[in-house]
Amino acid sequence: MKCPHCQSNKTVKNGKARLKDQRQRQNYLCRSCGKRFNERTNTPMARLRTPPEIVSAALSVRSEGLGIRATGRSFEKAHTTIIGWEERFAQQVEKWSPPAPVEAEITVEGDEVYTRVGKNLSPQ
Ligand SMILES: [Zn+2]
């Protein structure tokens, strides 16, 4: 677990906090800067009261083109809440994005290109 404050890897587990919904959250302590954090610190999900799955699902239907008020009704949230989520994610979209599979695709293409070039160069 990398420290979100100083990016150090010298972090240790520092007890667990029990959440209202019975899940446990692992807390960490950074030995470099001495700050405490948990796995949600500095992520778009930090300090959200709504489960990440819900926020993610709401933003997903929004990206499909569902209106802000309709989304709010579907998820039983005020539409202003939905707007708040969108603003939060727009600011932190880079951190939120899962690792894209682009690298793998490029590798495959690279191999194909290499193979083709190799054939062209072979003296036949
Ligand atoms: Zn630190």
Question: Helices and strands in order, then pairings?
Answer:
Elements: E1 11-18, E2 24-30, E3 36-38, H1 52-63, H2 68-74, H3 79-91, H4 93-96, H5 102-121
Antiparallel strand pairs: 1-2, 2-3
Helix pairs in contact: 2-3
Bound molecules: zinc ion (ZN).
State the low-pLDDT regions, or none: 100-119
- Gyration radius from CA atoms, angstroms: 22 Å
Main beta-sheet strand count, sense and barrel state: 3 strands, antiparallel
Major β-sheet strand ordering: 1-2-3
In brief:
The chain is of the alpha+beta class and 124 residues long. The chain is 45% helix and 15% strand.
Write up what this structure looks like:
This protein is of the alpha+beta class. The protein folds into two domains: 1-42, N-terminal domain of TfIIb; 43-96. Helix content is 45%, strand content 15%. A three-stranded antiparallel beta sheet has the order 1-2-3, with no helix packed on it. A hairpin with a 5-residue loop joins strand 1 and strand 2. Zinc ion (ZN) binds at residues 3, 5-6, 8, 30, 32-33, 35.
